[in-house]
Amino acid sequence: MSAMLPGAEDTIAALATAPGRSALAVVRVSGPRAHEIARRLLDPWRAGPRTAYRARLTDPSTGRVIERPVVTVFRAPASYTGDDLVELSVHGGHVGPARTLGALLAAGARLALPGEFTRRAVAAGKLDVLQAEAIGDLIDSESRVMHDAALAQLDGRLSRRIAELRDAVLGLEAMIAYDIDFPEEDSGPIDPERVAEATAALEDALERLLGTAAAGEVVRRGARVVLAGAPNVGKSSLFNALVGRDRAIVTPIAGTTRDAIEAVVDVGAWPVRLVDTAGLRASTDPLEQLGVAMTERALAEADVVLACGDSTVTLGDAACAARARTAAPVLAVRTKGDLVDRGPGALDVAARESASHGSEASDAPLVVSAVTGAGLAGLRERLERMIAGRVGDEWRDAPLLTRERHRAAIAEARAEVAAFRGARSSGDAGVPVVVAAVHLRAAATALESLIGAIDVDDVLDRVFRTFCVGK
Fold first, then answer.
1. 417: Cβ–Cβ under 8 A, 6 or more apart, which residues?
2. How many CA atoms lie within 13 Å of 180's alpha carbon, on the beta-carbon side?
3. Across 85-105, average pLDDT
4. Domain that holds residue 439
């Protein structure tokens, strides 16, 4: 980590809550002059830390009272940023928070950059980079499971696991240091079998953590579940029923849906990014052709496809069309179940079509009704099983890798440990132990980059670029 961040000597201020109509809004000011600036604007000023009190906030140019905030004072280093910090809880809305922020800026603060408060917290050692990312994930979470995963990461669960793996790498480095320091020994003072066992255990631990990346990706962005089928077979009605509100327009006119419509819903333990698409059919209408092309792209990117049809013919056609366009598992769903005969022979054709493709799709098509809600619970249960089957079980007892940066670093560390093992096991033809040790140093560096134990300014730039101002 850099010893001093650019602009660290500045006192920064920003609105820390979303702008708009609300009961309260929070404005933060942090930095070397935070208390001096607050003292100029607040009457009374009380420097006692971590005590909330009510004051009058005045405009520095006119002396007029512009707000009556509740003030909380924090002294360095016992604050979120590690600097002196003041939080002002003011009335919500647009005008009051804006005038409060304006007064702070007029008194000598500058507007904070996106994520600058949290970046200062990382620089002060209050958080590591993984925990800072977790704050961004908490803000962006769209489902309960993503929120829970972000809280676990903020609590340091992934950071502690990375630190344990780094310690294991350093332990291996210490072992082979004897081979370097005592080259006259036939096998060195450390039993080679002990080095081999420690290497295998480390490689296995890295592999298991890497195995959580698939689940982490689903947790972070949601499993992409695409509804596909011919126009007017009930896709949009089913979409609305699963979402729980009218999100997609439903009419008796075929081709109403021209664009892919998305909504995030919880399905059991998983967030699902449900995608309603335009009907799959040949058309000469340029606008409809664009919608069909978008449907095909959605199918190619899907984790699960719901092939929808309101008859055995449309259901079979939808399943065939979907499988031709995706590698994801396809679940046949008979829509408008309240309008059709649901006797034992009603779905024989669709069931035979589905069974010919194996896997999850070998089960008989599900019959659902968006009108009565019949079959929706069974559909959600089947979706939950299919998603769990896609991501595996490695995530259940381990912290999750929720970002590509995490996955790439762990994959690099695993590859370097594997390269070290290969160099050590190649016998007399192998590379010198000094060269083999380079792989362990590279593995440790990859792990250190995750938690910010080395200079990672470029990583921090990427992490905080997407943060909101005030965090």
1. 169, 199, 202, 203, 206, 439, 440, 443
2. 14
3. 96
4. 138-212+401-451
